Amino acid sequence: MITPAKVEAVEYRRISDVVWELAPFGAMTVPGLIFASQTLMDLVLLEHATTQVANVAQLPGIRRASFAMPDIHWGYGFPIGGVAATDVDADGVVSPGGVGFDICCGVRLLASNFTEADFNSHRERVMRNLDQSIPRGLGKGAIAPGDLVPGVLARGAAAALEAGYGWEEDLERCEEHGTSAGADPKTISDHAIARGRGQLGSLGSGNHFLEVQVVDEVHDSNVAQAFGLAEGMLVVMLHCGSRGLGHQTCTDQLRAMGPAMSSYGITVPDRQLACVPVRSPEGDEYLRAMAASANFAWANRHVLAHAARQAFAESFGMSPEKTGMRLVYDVAHNLAKIETHDVDGRATELCVHRKGATRAFGPGHLDLPEDLRATGQPVLVPGSMGTSSWVLRGVVDNPAFFSAAHGAGRVMSRKQAKRRQPGSQVRDQLEAEGISVRPGSIRLLSEEAPYAYKDVDEVVDVCARGHLAAKVARLRPVGVVKG
Amino acid sequence: MSYRVLSHTADTGIEATGDSLPSLVAELATGMFSLVATIEPSAAVRWTKVRVESATPEDLVVDTLSELVYLSEIEDLVFCAFRVDSSPGGLAITVEAGGVPVAAVEPSGPPIKAVTYHRLVVEEREDGWYGRVYFDV
C-alpha cells in the first residue's frame, strides 16, 4: 500500500540559475523542481506552495520530477503551474486535480490585417461591438445554441465549424486540431450537459478575458513571421475554458474517484489529489470524459473567435475574411495527455498533467502542423490585465516534458486585491494608459488588477533562461473585454 | 452569522460552525453565495428543493454545495436563504434554497466554479459542528 505522508516543511536548494530543487523525503519518489528567479522563489516560499509541489511528487508512477513553472502559485491539491508525468505502464495514475475544474482552459490568439492606428480610429465602435457580442460574467448567455452541445462533445471545434462558426483553416492551428481523441459524450452527466447548453460561446468570469493587443516587440522575426505575426500588428487574445460543463465533469469524476482510489491501495495527502491508475476502468472513464469536456472548450474558443471576427468586420465595414484575423494558435493549459517522452534513455508512455502549464513542443515534433514544425509550437502566455502578454516557442531541450508557464500567476488573493483599490479606480488607470476596458462587472475589476499578479516579463525571462521556451514577441494590450 | 471567509491566493474558502450537520451546511451555503453577492435572506423570490444523500459528513457537505452551484447556474439564481433538514434514510438532508434572479444581482465576486476537497474539514466538536471548504472561483 502506498501511504504518502503530508509534507509540512520542505528543504530546498538552488541547483542552477533558475532551478530550485526540493530533495525527495518522506513519501516523495522524485524531487520537486521549481523554475524561478530569486524574486519569484521568495513569493513561492511566502505562500508555502512548495508543500504542494512535494505532495505531487508522491503520486504513484511519477517520473523525473514534480515540476513547477515560473508562474507557480498555491492551488488546491496541485499547485497552479504544476507539471506531473506518470508512467502509464508502471501503474502511473491520472488525477482530475492535476487538470483542474476548468478542463482545457486555454488561450487562442488571432492575427489581423489591422494596426494600432486602425484600432484607434475605430476604437469606440470595436469595443462596443465586442462588449455586445461576447457573453461573459455571472449568469447565462452564449453565442451558439444548446443543441450543438452533443456534437461538440464528440467532435469539438469541427462540430462548431460544420454549424457555420469559424474558418476551416482554424482547425490546423489548434492543438489536437480542436478535437480531442478518445472523447466519449456518454461519460458526461446530464448535469454537465445542462450547464453546457447555455454556455457554448461564453467567456466566464475571474481571470478570463478577450484582449485587443498590439505586437509591441519582436524578439525572433523569422519565427514571428512563420507564426503570422509582425511588429505593429493588431491581434486578439482569448482566455477561457470548458465553462460549467467542465466544472461539473470534474466534480462528477472526483466524486467517483475518491472511493475507487482505495480499491487500488492509494492514499493521498490531499483529497483533491485523488487519482487512479491510468490503466483502470475509472482512469479510462476520466480520460474519455476529460476529452469530451476539452472538446467543449476547443469549440467554445472557436465560437468566441468567430464572434470577435464578426465584431471587427462590422466595426470596419468589411467581411470577416478581409480582417485577416487568422488563427495563430490555440493551446490548452489545463489537461492530462498521453504522450511519449524519453525517461532515462527509454521512450516511455506518460500521462502528462499540466495544471496551469502550457504544452510547449519543440521544433520537429510530429504533432505540430507542418508549417510550424521547423519553429516549434507557439506558446501563449497571457499577462495580467493591463500588462504585456507573450508569444514564445517550444524548444528542443525543454526539461519539463515540454511544458512552460501559462500566465503571470497570482500573488495576491482576491480579497486583498479588492481592498487595495476599487474597480472604478483600476478602470480609470487603465483607460489613462490607453487601454479601453469593458468589464463584466466594474466591482470585480480590482480582483484582476495588474498588482494582483506577478511580473509576467520576469516569468517569461525565467522560461527563456530555464530552456522552457524561447521569446518570439511581446504583446501590449489596448482593449480589454473582461469576464 | 457563523461563517468566515478564508483568503487563498487563487481561490476562496469558508469556515463555519453549526449546532447540527444540517445547520452547518446552511451556514456554509450562506457563506459560499456571500462570495458572489451580498443579498438579505428576505430578498429571496424563488425557491428550489433538493435532497442529497452521501456516505460521509464530508461528502455530504461537498455534494450539497456542489448541487447548489449546479442549481444556481441552471436556474439563473443567486441563492441567499436556506432551510436545511435531516432527511429520512442514511446520511441525508433536504435543502430548500431561495434566491434572486442573476439579472437583479450586482455581484461582489466571481461565480463559484466548483467545490473542492482541498483542506476540507467537516467534524463534530464538543460545541457543535465545524466545517472548512475551499472553492474554485
Summarize the structure.
The complex is a heterodimer of chains A (483) and B (137). By secondary structure, chain A is an alpha+beta fold. Chain A has twelve helices and 19 strands.
Description:
The complex is a heterodimer of chains A (483) and B (137). Chain A is built from twelve helices and 19 strands. Helices cover 30% and strands 24% of the residues of chain A. Chain A is α+β, with helices and mostly antiparallel strands and 483 residues long. In chain A, strands 7, 8, 9, 11, 15, 16, 18 and 19 form an eight-stranded mixed β-sheet that branches. Chain A has a seven-stranded mixed β-sheet with strand order 1-2-3-4-5-13-12, with helices on both faces. In chain A, strands 6-10 form a two-stranded antiparallel ribbon. In chain B, 24% of the residues lie in helices and 42% in strands. Chain B has helices at 21-34, 57-75; strands at 3-7, 12-18, 46-54, 77-86, 91-101, 114-115, 121-125, 128-136. The radius of gyration of chain B is 14 Å and the shape is globular. Chains A and B meet through β4, α6, α8 and α10 of A and α2 and β6 of B.
Short descriptors:
heterodimer, A: alpha+beta, 12 helices, globular, disordered N terminus
Number of helices of chain B: 2
The radius of gyration computed from the alpha-carbon positions of chain B, rounded to a whole number of angstroms, is: 14 Å
Q: Specify the structural class of chain B.
A: alpha+beta
Outline type of chain A:
globular
Beta-strand portion of chain A reads 15-25%
Number of beta strands of chain A: 19
Radius of gyration of chain A: 21 Å
Low-confidence stretches of chain A: 1-8
Count of helical stretches of chain A: 12
Helical content band of chain A: 25-40%
Low-confidence stretches of chain B: none
